[in-house]
Write a structure and sequence with these properties.
This is Olfactory receptor 52D1. By secondary structure, the chain is mainly alpha-helical. It has a single domain, classed as Rhopdopsin 7-helix transmembrane proteins (Up-down Bundle). Helix content is 77%, strand content 0%. It contains ten helices and no strands. Helix 2 runs antiparallel to helix 4 and helix 8 packs antiparallel against helix 9. The protein is elongated, with a radius of gyration of 20 Å.
């Protein structure tokens, strides 16, 4: 569990530092300008680490399924197994999202260089190009439409197995406690996939959705989950909570 939480926290830190400082500069200091190369770098980190976070959600869900087999838990979730899952998530990130900045770098931009977002969103930057970008849009939307929903479906199936295991617990108190923990995880996952799905399918089908609604949901997508994840996966984890309290505790003489 702590291996998963470590990978998950790194992903959240990268996503937060890629978006929130720039948002604060925009709203507080009125800093509207960003270099094109910096925009491409930000976009690469945002989209690639979002895919990594989705992959880690799936890996954690698969790991939690093993809890239903306590006698075989240590043999199912070995260090090698967790390492392999982490490597697969990273390889998927590199394979699918490295072409993002390369594709955009080759597009000529002869229109306005203003995008209606607080961060460099891929589809918003693509619209600046003065050539046909149908193939580029189709590639990116296809990748997002395949990876996101597939991860979401597999996470849902994993949590269905988790709930089935929880209902079989001999103690009703233990069952309620496990369901409370599982319920908080599901809430965070729903926020992540619902906002991400809204953004993806708005680009493909939601031509008549007002732009300010799309921008608001996109900002929630990058600000709410990183805020909730430390609470749900950190504060609610007993060992982490106790260690933090011991670290912060000041001895009064």
């Amino acid at each position: 569990m702590f291996f998963f939480l470590c990978m998950f926290s790194i992903t959240d830190l990268v996503l937060s530092t890629s978006t929130l400082p720039r948002m604060l500069c925009l709203f507080w200091l009125g800093a509207h300008d960003i270099a094109f190369d910096a925009c491409l770098t930000q976009m690469f980190f945002i989209h690639s680490f979002t895919a990594m976070e989705s992959g880690f959600f799936l890996a954690m869900a698969i790991g939690f399924v093993a809890i239903g087999h306590p006698l075989r838990h240590s043999t199912i979730l070995t260090h090698a197994c967790i390492t392999i899952m982490g490597i697969i998530v990273v390889i998927r990130w590199v394979a699918f999202f490295s072409p993002h900045p390369i594709l955009l770098k080759q597009l000529p931009c002869c229109r306005t260089r203003i995008i209606a977002h607080t961060y460099c969103e891929f589809m918003a930057v693509v619209k600046l190009a003065c050539m046909d970008t149908g193939a580029t849009k189709s590639y990116i939307l296809s990748m997002a439409s395949v990876i996101g929903p597939c991860d979401a479906v597999l996470v849902a199936i994993s949590y269905a197995f988790i709930l089935r295991s929880e209902f079989r617990l001999p103690s009703q108190e233990a069952s309620f406690k496990a369901m409370g923990t599982c319920g908080s995880h599901v809430c965070v996952i729903l926020v992540f996939y619902s906002t991400a799905g809204f953004s993806i399918f708005t680009h493909r089908f939601g031509k008549h959705i007002p732009a300010h609604i799309h921008i608001f949901i996109a900002n929630m997508y990058f600000s709410v989950p990183p805020f909730l994840n430390p609470i749900m996966y950190g504060v609610r984890t007993k060992k982490i909570r106790e260690h933090v309290l011991r670290t912060l505790m000041v001895k009064v003489v």
